[in-house]
Specification:
This protein has 15 helices and 15 strands. The protein is of the alpha/beta class and 489 residues long. Strands 5, 6, 7, 8, 9, 10, 11, 12, 13, 14 and 15 form an 11-stranded mixed β-sheet that branches. Strands 1-2-4-3 form a 4-stranded antiparallel β-sheet. Strand 3 and strand 4 form a beta hairpin. The protein binds adenosine-5'-diphosphate (ADP) and magnesium ion.
Length: 489
């Protein structure tokens, strides 16, 4: 049996400094160990600094009172003082929001760590600030070299679970791409709100050149949007609130002596009451619907030709030109877009409808035409990307899939957390509104009762502007031009 090799044990040489000054060396080692221990403690305690700060305030109050009272009484008095100050609602809300922010920060950082969001140097994105919002918390992130908003974007599902919330939304600062906003959404303040009253209801006359009151946002602030030079696409499942939103715009337009209303309403029941206020109205007949679109196209042609004859460079119908040349804004409403593009009529008629609708949406801006189209089938065959992208305003009411939501709002919004699938089934009238070049904002549309619509549809007939030159008006579904504005009011 071979003999085992003796173990080679090397004893490290004592450092010359330790040899020379053993007392000082021992102190240095002690201080070094203490600093490391302190560092480790601060690292563990730092995420809990807000909770610790409250405990420190409590401890200090106790310490101060202990000089005056027995220990237990001092403790009871300091707890009572803290509880008393929290009883005031604004203070309590601030403190609770502050603590919730700290908890969200820890959860999100844990989410970053577990989804391996650190850069190659092992650093996680920095959370510069946390604030409370109406729907939850907002984290201001600063991403490090090697990280990006897009990289974090791919992890929103995991981050949502890590933050234990409904939704997580990421928005990159368009000018400084290392700054990223991360919105943690914990509640939907709109789903439980009462019906939103429409502010135009008690007014007599409005102007289509003024912003339209559409509803309220998440903060409860009114949403007013100008529809001039704009076009609106609305989508969502049946019963989600599309026609009601369009009715808000039509109600506004009806009270405007500077607006014509043109309607294509396959259901008849939604916009039927506006028949007499409207310049033209078509329901389920393909011929009538096409005739209405052709009417709008011929008006666009007439207006663009007119603009060319004006002195100087005139690129669009402005309020001054509109007043001078009697060019009211035309609000064209197409409800249930899919009906005429893919359900009724021959294939030639459907193609013609598609072409005319696309032409109108692409050329409406300069001519003072405001197209509003709604679909309950937000699929790419009904609203192809090329058509969707022409709409400057888009509103997605509840949808069942992220794809449908993106068909309305635009590709990629669902991935960033802006998806209409997160709207409660019961939250009718709640939707995501995307206005030019901004993030979508959650909105609850104003609600106008059927009785009010019935009343308005009669009292506003007097506001209908005269028909344009060459207006046909002979078709049964197209309202005949009224010669005497007072006759029907
Ligand atoms: N903004 C709203 N506020 C309150 N209820 C609404 C709102 N919008 C729609 N609703 C309710 O939802 C129902 C269906 O709305 P509607 O606009 O006809 O849906 P859609 O056109 O999407 O099928 C309405 O009859 C109404 O009861
Ligand atoms: Mg409808």
């Amino acid at each position: 049996m071979p003999k085992p090799k003796p173990l080679a044990v090397t004893v490290p040489d004592t450092h010359p400094f330790t040899k020379a000054l053993p007392g000082v060396a021992a102190k240095v080692v002690f201080v070094y160990a203490f600093v490391r221990l302190l560092g480790a403690f601060v690292r563990v305690a730092w995420p809990y600094r807000r909770e610790l700060a409250i405990l420190t305030v409590l401890g200090s109050a106790w310490y101060a009172l202990i000089l005056l009272l027995p220990a237990w009484w001092a403790l009871a008095a300091s707890v009572a003082a803290l509880a008393g100050s929290l009883a005031a609602s604004p203070v309590r809300m601030r403190v609770v929001g502050w603590l919730r922010g700290a908890r969200t920060r820890r959860l999100v950082l844990a989410g970053f760590a577990e989804t391996r969001s650190a850069n190659p140097s092992g650093k996680l994105p920095r959370i510069a600030k946390v604030t409370s919002t109406v729907v939850g918390e907002r984290l201001y992130l600063v991403v490090r070299p090697g990280q990006s908003a897009e990289l974090l974007d791919a992890r929103v599902e995991e981050l949502r679970a890590a933050a234990r919330c409904r939704e997580v939304r990421l928005t990159r600062d368009p000018h400084r791409s290392h700054r990223v906003l991360l919105d943690v959404v914990r509640r939907d303040p709109l789903s439980a709100t009462a019906d939103v009253a429409w502010s135009g209801q008690h007014t007599d006359v409005l102007s289509m050149w003024d912003p339209v009151h559409l509803g309220i946002d998440e903060n409860g602030e009114p949403v007013h949007l100008s529809l001039v030079e704009r076009s609106l696409l609305v989508g969502g499942e049946p019963g989600s609130g599309k026609s009601s939103l369009l009715n808000v715009v039509v109600s506004h337009a009806s009270m405007c002596p500077d607006a014509h209303i043109v309607l294509i309403d396959p259901n008849e029941v939604q916009f039927g009451p506006w028949r007499d206020r409207a310049l033209a109205y078509a329901s389920d007949s393909s011929d009538d619907a096409l005739a209405v679109l052709e009417l709008v196209r011929s008006e666009i042609r007439r207006r663009l030709a007119l603009l060319k004859t004006l002195p100087g460079v005139v690129r669009k119908v402005t309020s001054t030109i509109a007043a001078e040349y009697a060019l009211p804004l035309w609000v064209l409403v197409v409800d249930e877009l899919a009906f005429h593009t893919s359900v009724v009529g021959t294939s030639a008629q459907r193609n013609a409808f598609n072409t005319a609708a696309r032409d109108i949406v692409s050329r409406c801006r300069a001519a003072g035409i405001v197209p509003l189209m709604a679909t309950q089938r937000p699929t790419s065959d009904v609203v192809p990307t090329s058509l969707r992208d022409l709409f400057s305003l888009r509103c997605a009411f509840r949808t069942t899939t992220n794809t449908s939501s993106d068909v309305i709002l635009g590709d990629g919004w669902a991935r960033q957390g802006y998806t209409a699938t997160d709207i409660d089934l019961t939250a009718r009238g709640v939707g995501w509104l995307l206005a030019e070049a901004q993030q979508p904002q959650r909105m609850k549309a104003a609600w106008i009762s059927d009785d009010t619509i019935a009343g308005l549809s009669i009292t506003t007939i007097r506001h209908r502007p005269p028909a344009p030159p060459g207006y046909p008006g002979a078709r049964p579904s197209i309202a005949a031009p009224r010669t005497d504005p007072e006759a029907r009011s």
